[in-house]
Amino acid sequence: MGHGGGGALSAELVQNVFAPAFGGEVLHRLGDAAALSLGGLRLAFSTDSFVVRPLFFPGGSIGDLAVNGTVNDLAVSGARAAYLSCGFILEEGVEIDTVTRVADALGAAARAAGVEVVTGDTKVVEAGHGDGIYINTAGIGLIPAGVDLRPQRVVPGDVVIVSGAIGVHGVAIMSVREGLEFGVEIVSDCAPLGGLVDAMLAVTRDLHMLRDPTRGGLAAALNEVAAAAGAGVVIEERKVPVPPAVANACAVLGLDPMYVANEGKLVAFVPRQHADAVVDAMRAHPRGAEAAIIGEVVRDHPGMVVARTGLGGTRVVDMPLGEQLPRIC
Amino acid sequence: MGHGGGGALSAELVQNVFAPAFGGEVLHRLGDAAALSLGGLRLAFSTDSFVVRPLFFPGGSIGDLAVNGTVNDLAVSGARAAYLSCGFILEEGVEIDTVTRVADALGAAARAAGVEVVTGDTKVVEAGHGDGIYINTAGIGLIPAGVDLRPQRVVPGDVVIVSGAIGVHGVAIMSVREGLEFGVEIVSDCAPLGGLVDAMLAVTRDLHMLRDPTRGGLAAALNEVAAAAGAGVVIEERKVPVPPAVANACAVLGLDPMYVANEGKLVAFVPRQHADAVVDAMRAHPRGAEAAIIGEVVRDHPGMVVARTGLGGTRVVDMPLGEQLPRIC
């Protein structure tokens, strides 16, 4: 299971199996989306498969995830998502009513994200060879001139900004899957980020790097960027927004919110001179109301992420090995 | 299972569930690939999921299918396939060696088809919730100026051409799955069709419609075009190339080769004045050596496909309801 968790084991599979077999120069960059040149245009192209259990959860469904997961990969590459493909793998015996509810959710999410589903495919596998519904989406979008978001542009001095509360999606899934109650219902943050990215790029096109911290959470996202940038990252633990309900649930479940998946948040690496203006623009947008500066990029400990704790100490924030919460997207 | 078979039940699912939920104007055209406008370019965009059993079969593997299935959907829309995405859903416990062999086959097929895999994703599901490996690919390509392939352009008088022997892929899968032997090994025709389409377009850009007859076979492809064109199709049964080994296997298995899937063939609807030149160009290409004119488009019986039998009679070639051979791609 760990090989699908978005952590070190996933990275190993890509680097040892997939990249040697079929990876070219673009795949080796390993961005959230591929930045391509086609007919003189700069395109972003990205794909994700969705195997979440259960299919419906507080705040969304596999249909919402299938849109927002791919749309957000395009958004954090700086592209305006334009078109989606959609492949369904249905398990024999799944209720048509369930398929319809998922399709309706997917359609509503696409309209909310301003993207059109233009091509699709359906396969059916025998009962016991699937799990109700799996969905794959791929998306394409145009990258505006002057936008160049990639971890290699991240340099010491850059400010690290997170767009809001972390850990919400993973805990929402776990609470419904395990039948746990934490006093208040924890609702997934699953949402499209294109509008927020537009607002940030309106401040300056010179953002260095964006990432949506999904599988592996904020910890995996920060580690991937630190490794690719060859720089260190220092964050102030108490500045990372964690809702009390999420903190409580994580304490009960034995989880660290830094490693829990998000589906409607991004982390940005921004030149220091633009940081305050970018945070202001984010806070003026509904998806960034709780945006916060959480740290900075440093010359020390390249490739490593360090958290300053509330008590004045420091701890290393490791790359997760596998996934503490399987099948949350 | 029938809803995934590419026949009438699949069409029902798309028309009653998916199109109302998330279909826009492009999806409603229901082509093999979507023809899009983006930044002033004409793009084709297509997706397919692959759930074939077994993963390896005579003439190919799920990795070859994953490339050629999507590349051919682009080719028959007239586009030059440029980039592929690739999403793997792995079942917990699948051997890394198996994943590596599939990935290697996928890489070799991509190189043979002249397409680059640029973005990917991997998910893992628990043992018993998958079937080794499922793959989704999506592909994008440019449509050259002057190329406009769609069933609405098909008119009475058009000549129907098939690029070679039909029924081979489905029978190859069934023979290995059921452990049947038919004297000679039947090898899948899984292959990329971009080069053949290029050769045809070099004769004239005024081809009306191409389709790759995969699930549902030649019968489903002809019926779909007849319905969308609002015209009738008449074929001469004895002109349809069926290899003796496929005919024998179909007799044993109780199948009609017209309904068996192909993975390296196309059917073309071509204006009469270009038909002979197009067939000559196809026969000069390795993937079209057995190209044959098999029939024509007529004003009579709009939406219906009729075969003239060797005995001088006629029979209706129905749209298949479901899939006689599940999970052949």
TrEMBL record, chains A, B:
InterPro entries: HypE, PurM-like_C_dom, PurM-like_C_sf, PurM-like_N, PurM-like_N_sf
Name of a matching Pfam family: AIRS
CDD domains from the UniProt entry: HypE (cd02197)
Positions of the PurM-like N-terminal domain: 32-143
Domain PurM-like C-terminal: residue ranges: 156-301
UniProt record similarity statement: Belongs to the HypE family.
Protein name as it appears in the record: Hydrogenase expression/formation protein HypE
